[in-house]
Predict the structure.
Amino acid sequence: LDNYVSTSLTESIQQYHSNNSTKATWDSIQTFLQCCGVNGTSDWGSQPPASCPSNPQVQGCYAQAKLWFHSNFLHIGIIMICVCVIQVLGMSFALTLNCQIDKTSQALGL
């Protein structure tokens, strides 16, 4: 999985100048995580984008993202559980509504 993610991120860097959504995504990630490239500034060649921090010792975004996910794992897990509970409740309410509509239509002879 690590290899796949790293390779995909490296491939997306090649689309930075040709795809506006890729450019916006990379700029947001680099600004939020204070990182540059996948493994470091060298991923961008001789001219890193302006969204890269000016610090020469800046880390790559892959390492920074892993660190961010590990440090926020509990919060992410709680949010995912809440989303799942809301989905199950929504399905339960939809099923209850469907059953009620069936009963009503049978009582009315429709």
Notes: DSSP finds four helices and no strands in the chain. Residues 72-110 form one domain. The mean pLDDT is 94.
